[in-house]
């Protein structure tokens, strides 16, 4: 699952070329803007994630890595079924043993659940993409403020 978006920070990078102080400050501010952005997306993804045991919701995390000319942020989960919850599945026979816990919690025979999935698949229950979509304008505004913060800090020196 790889939904990506980008923000044009070319003006900020051009500003960084103007001074040594800006060259240090711009990457820091871009990383801070990315951190604030992914935290918002993560919080909304956790709110939107469907809950049975809470494992999926607890597994949603974020990561920010500095990169030449900016930062890369990721929000996601490491549970194997996270993608199937987000995207749904086509009809297939899942292993009955994988459904046993869920079926027991819901009072349903695991074989019947497996048979239903073999006929209809599973419905998508998106939580990551809607969380990103909800925050795109806030993320854009966050990155637009990077140049303002850099200029304010440089002006205060």
Polypeptide structure, described:
- There is one protein chain.
- The relative contact order is 0.19.
- The protein is mainly alpha-helical.
- The chain contains seven helices and two strands; from the N terminus they run αααββαααα.
- The chain folds into two domains: 10-78 and 125-155, no CATH class; 89-122, no CATH class.
- The termini are far apart.
Secondary-structure map:
Blueprint: H1 10-16, H2 20-48, H3 55-59, E1 61-67, E2 70-76, H4 82-87, H5 96-106, H6 110-120, H7 128-155
Antiparallel strand pairs: 1-2
Based on secondary structure, the structural category is: mainly alpha
Termini Cα gap: 44 Å
* Main sheet record: 2 strands, antiparallel
Domain count: the total is 2
Mean pLDDT: 90
- Portion of residues in beta strands equals 5-15%
Shape: elongated
User: What is the rounded Rg?
Assistant: 21 Å
Low-confidence stretches: none
Q: Tally the beta strands.
A: 2
What is the H/E string? HHHEEHHHH
Please state how the strands of the largest beta sheet are arranged side by side: 1-2
In helices, the fraction of residues equals: 55-70%
How is this structure best summarized?
With 157 residues, the chain is mainly α.
Q: Key features?
A:
157 residues; mainly alpha; 2 domains
């Amino acid at each position: 699952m790889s939904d990506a978006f980008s923000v044009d920070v070319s003006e900020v990078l051009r500003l960084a070329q103007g001074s040594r102080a800006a060259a240090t400050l711009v990457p820091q501010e871009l990383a801070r803007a990315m951190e604030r952005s992914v935290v918002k997306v993560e919080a909304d993804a956790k709110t939107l994630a469907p809950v049975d045991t809470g494992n999926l919701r607890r597994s949603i995390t974020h990561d920010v890595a500095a990169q030449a000319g900016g930062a890369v942020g990721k929000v996601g989960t490491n549970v194997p079924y996270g993608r199937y919850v987000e995207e749904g599945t086509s009809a297939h026979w899942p292993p009955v043993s994988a459904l046993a816990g869920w079926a027991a919690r819901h009072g349903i025979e695991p074989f019947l659940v497996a048979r239903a999935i073999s006929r209809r698949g599973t419905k998508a229950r998106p939580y990551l993409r809607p969380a990103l979509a909800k925050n795109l304008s806030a993320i854009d505004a966050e990155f637009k403020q990077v140049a303002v913060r850099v200029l304010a800090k440089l002006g205060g020196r």
